[in-house]
Design goal:
Elements lengths: L13 E5 L45 E7 H6 L4 H13 L14 E9 L23 E14 L34 E5 L2 E7 L6 E6 L7 H14 L2 H4 L14 E3 L4 E3 L8 E4 L17 H4 L12 H12 L4 E3 L1 H4 L5 H8 L2 H7 L3 E4 L40 H5 L10 H8 L3 E4 L4 E4 L4 E3 L1 H4 L17 E3 L17 H12 L14 H11 L3 E2 L2 E2 L3 H4 L2 E2 L26 E2 L15 E2 L4 E4 L5 E3 L13 H5 L15 H10 L4 H6 L7 H5 L6 E12 L11 E7 L5 E9 H7 L9 E10 L2 H9 L7 E10 L5 E12 L9 E7 L1
Parallel strand pairs: 10-11, 10-12, 12-13, 29-30
Antiparallel strand pairs: 1-2, 2-3, 3-4, 4-5, 4-6, 6-7, 8-9, 8-11, 13-14, 14-15, 15-16, 17-18, 19-20, 21-27, 22-23, 22-24, 24-25, 24-27, 24-30, 25-26, 26-29, 27-28, 28-29
């Protein structure tokens, strides 16, 4: 690999410029006390493309560059303001770079890209936006921009003899000579996007006269007001939602009167704001509403004489500054030691958050009581600690669509269980992060950072945030990930389950309560009761949730049966665990062959109203049993009609036989009553063994556990089980371990597998039975708990010696 030439005038630094030539930046004057020869490119305002976009030639529309410099080189240029700022950023990161302490500074390289700006760069018609800079001072032009800094560690170069060379710094290209090629660089240790304020003289030279790091420590409350006003004026009921007008708040609903600083109960219609935040860990500063202080806190100014958590005090003050009188905060509006009343409030979280005018969200990454960053004298983190922006090289702007996921989704607040429904149920949200404020409603998103580079050069309404602050509308955008918008489907439900179960709960016993608000919404949207967070109408398919490894029950979740995902101590998903957010719609194309009953904890045993199907047809078991031939299916890789009828008639559990096993035996009700919340159903059961895994292949922590019958034939599998669990439970060396496998539903195998089976002429294996592996309890009746789910090839079920049983799944 060849080393690039070093320019003696600039030192060993390579600069790659796009769409411009060097002579564009070498005229005029530059202050050497501010900028060094190596950084001379920043000395002239032409690097920022300050001309109107339409006046520039197409070939000269962009000026972005990339520089490489070692830490050793930057340290030598301590008189340069740019070098000093960049080096200061690196030194702040050193404690968080495990490789830096053992790496020579001559081999630690910074890749510096820029300039980039805090705007999208393009308007909705994909035309370049003009950038004029701040010209409020007639003597100067101020440009606010950011750089993308990547820290890389170069491996020691080798000589032909294999020894290290003495060169301090080198960069190679694929061609070895052409400096315009993409550089081959080692993996990046860290990426950051610090911001800078560049001040240029407003004369003919337009030379750089000042460089300083640029941060916005506090947010502007008026900007937040402008977002809310725009939403109310432009969106109206679209963001309010029709159903919120019909919701009734729970009995005993209280709010904080921010004008009189007290707790109140109001009658009639009123407007209020909600708060979503994380409670501080530990007993300190956790003041809350309790039975013995309700009366005193209803007195005017009572909240002024108690010690409130900083985030609560800040939220009350911010609500007042936003012109809102009433605020709902759980710890001060729910009587925490009133067990019955508290449960009523928790069960109405959907009404509370959906009825709020908007929600203030403390989307923070700590549970320490730091208050609301950027407000009430609490400055925010400098930009070097922010999540890195993802700039667009051509437009020199930021990728607005990724800001939400970069700044909010990774936070500790968004990883907590209770906050899931608070985010999902809120119709308008003001996210206050460590770094910036973001607004989201049903129609738009707005970001504080999109106003920073423009507010000082604007006036009037533009300064309040109307200039470029909103980034998208519902027509142009993808569906909001955390929004209840339009029709809610089972696909939404499955995505929400995965998101929720992937989060943390301090008290695992809250797993059911923290989803109750979402369950209430789902009941209305799906027109189905929710049984332990599973929709009754879709019980057959929604029993097939997956988790990595065998089912592990949450001991703290009392009275929740094992068939509900609420009981799982692990994250749960539906469909392929590798793509939980893009579930194949065929997952719901099942064949109903079981009647389900439910032991209601508040009543007796009742038959469930489960939607019965034949793949894509809404056909009941009774209707199928009255037909001589099964409904015809269409599509690719579907077994022929004659084969389907033949295979199903040979199966020990088919619609004709299942119809005869609809009713339960007379002794079942007494047994089921001993297990509140259990599912009861008649089905076929077989005792099968776990087979040993075949050596080879790509090793993974979890894999499918093969099921084998008494003749050692493979008949199916149980999905996503730990390899260690399989090794401990498989049959080997004459030791036979049998496990109970019960049939729940049936359907066609996955499309990709059917395609392969069709190519191999194995059409009879396209139909499968969806089964559950259970642990049978020592009871007279077949009482069992869930272990895992999987499938059995339907044509091989008859060889497994299945028997009809009444299963009580608890």
């Amino acid at each position: 690999m060849d080393e690039l030439d070093q320019n003696p005038a600039t030192g060993p630094l390579d600069t790659v410029e796009c769409g411009t030539s060097d002579d564009r930046h070498t005229s005029g004057r530059s202050n050497s006390l501010i900028i060094c020869p190596r950084c001379r490119i920043w000395g002239y305002i032409s690097i920022h493309n300050m001309d109107e976009p339409k006046s520039r030639p197409e070939s000269d529309r962009f000026t972005t560059m990339r520089q490489y410099a070692s830490i050793e080189q930057l340290a030598k240029e301590h008189q340069c303001a740019m070098c000093v700022s960049i080096l200061a950023s690196y030194r702040a990161w050193i404690p968080y770079l495990p490789n830096a302490s053992s790496w020579p500074t001559s081999r630690i390289v910074l890749e510096i890209s820029g300039p980039f700006y805090l705007d999208p760069g393009l308007d909705p018609s994909a035309k370049l936006l003009p950038r004029r800079g701040d010209r409020s001072n007639p003597d100067h032009i101020v440009v606010r921009m950011f750089l993308r800094l990547e820290v890389k560690g170069l491996p020691p170069p080798k000589t032909e003899a294999g020894n290290e060379t003495s060169e301090q710094f080198f960069v190679t290209t694929p061609s070895g000579n052409d400096p315009t090629d993409e550089f081959r660089m080692p993996p990046t240790w860290l990426v950051a996007t610090p911001r800078f304020k560049m001040t240029y003289s407003n004369d003919e030279a337009k030379a750089l006269v000042g460089v300083e790091e640029w941060d916005v420590p506090f947010f502007d409350v008026n900007l937040l007001k402008s977002w809310l006003k725009r939403c109310e004026d432009c969106h109206g009921s679209l963001c309010a939602g029709e159903e919120t007008e019909k919701m009734s708040l729970p009995a005993g609903f209280r709010v904080i009167d921010t004008h009189e600083n007290k707790i109140v109960q109001l009658e009639g219609s009123f407007r209020y704001v909600a708060l979503s935040y994380m409670w501080k860990v530990g007993p300190d500063n956790n003041f809350q509403l309790e039975k013995d202080n309700v009366a005193s806190l209803e007195e005017p100014h009572s909240l002024e004489v108690v010690q409130l958590p900083n985030i609560v005090a800040d939220a009350i003050a911010l609500c007042r500054d936003l012109g809102e009188r009433y605020l709902w905060i759980d710890r001060l509006c729910i009587v925490q030691d009133d067990i019955v009343g508290k449960l009523d409030q928790i069960n109405a979280m959907d009404a509370i958050y959906r009825s709020a005018s908007f929600t203030i969200i403390g989307a923070l990454d700590t549970r320490d009581d730091i208050g609301l960053p950027g407000y009430a004298g609490r400055p925010r983190h400098p930009s070097i600690w922010w999540p890195a922006y993802k700039p667009e090289v051509e437009s020199q702007g930021i990728r607005c669509g990724e800001i939400m996921s970069d700044f909010i989704n990774p936070t500790l607040w968004n990883r907590r269980g209770w906050t899931f429904q608070e985010r999902l149920l809120s119709r308008r949200s003001i996210f206050i992060t460590h770094h910036q404020v973001i607004y989201e409603c049903f129609q738009d998103e707005a970001m504080e950072l999109l106003t920073w580079a423009t507010h000082e050069e604007s006036s009037g309404d533009e300064a309040s945030g109307a200039l470029g602050s909103f980034t998208r509308g519902v027509i142009e955008s993808e569906p909001f990930e955390y929004r209840i918008w339009g029709n809610i489907s089972l696909l939404d439900y499955c995505r929400w389950v995965f998101d929720y179960t992937s989060r943390q709960l301090s008290n695992r016993g809250d797993a059911l309560n923290a989803f109750n608000g979402v369950s209430n919404v789902l009941e209305r949207a799906l027109n189905s009761p929710m049984l332990f967070c599973i929709p009754e109408k879709s019980m057959a398919s929604c029993l097939f949730w997956d988790c990595f490894g065998p089912f592990s029950h949450q001991g703290e979740v009392y009275d929740v049966p094992s068939w509900s995902w609420v009981s799982s101590s692990k994250a749960v998903g539906y469909g392929s665990l590798d793509s939980r957010r893009s579930i194949d719609r065929e997952f719901f194309d099942i064949v109903s062959i079981v009647y389900f009953y439910f032991q209601d904890p508040n009543g007796g045993l009742r038959k469930l109203d489960v939607e019965e199907r034949w793949v894509k047809h809404g056909v009941t078991i009774q209707e199928l049993s009255e037909r001589g031939e099964l409904p015809t299916l269409s599509g690719k890789h579907i077994p022929a009609e004659w084969r389907t009828n033949e295979d199903w008639k040979e199966c020990p559990q088919n619609p004709w036989i299942a119809r005869k096993h609809e009713e339960l035996g007379p002794d079942i009700r007494g047994s089921a009553a001993l297990f509140p919340g259990c599912l009861v159903f008649n089905t076929t059961v077989a005792s099968l063994r776990i087979g040993q895994l075949i050596a080879g292949g790509y090793p993974t922590e979890v894999t499918d556990a093969p099921l084998i019958d008494k003749n050692d034939n493979y008949v199916g599998n149980i999905r996503n089980m730990d390899r260690g669990w399989i090794a401990a439970h498989c049959s080997r060396d004459g030791i036979q371990k049998w496990y109970e496998i019960v049939v729940i539903t049936s359907g066609l195998d996955d499309y990709s597998l059917r395609k392969r089976l069709g190519f191999e002429k194995r059409h009879s294996e396209m139909w499968v039975l969806h089964v559950m592996m259970v642990e049978r309890l020592p009871c007279k009746q077949f009482v069992a708990r869930r272990i895992g789910v999987g499938k059995v090839i339907m044509s091989r079920w008859k060889d497994c010696n299945p028997r009809w049983e009444t299963v009580i799944l608890c």
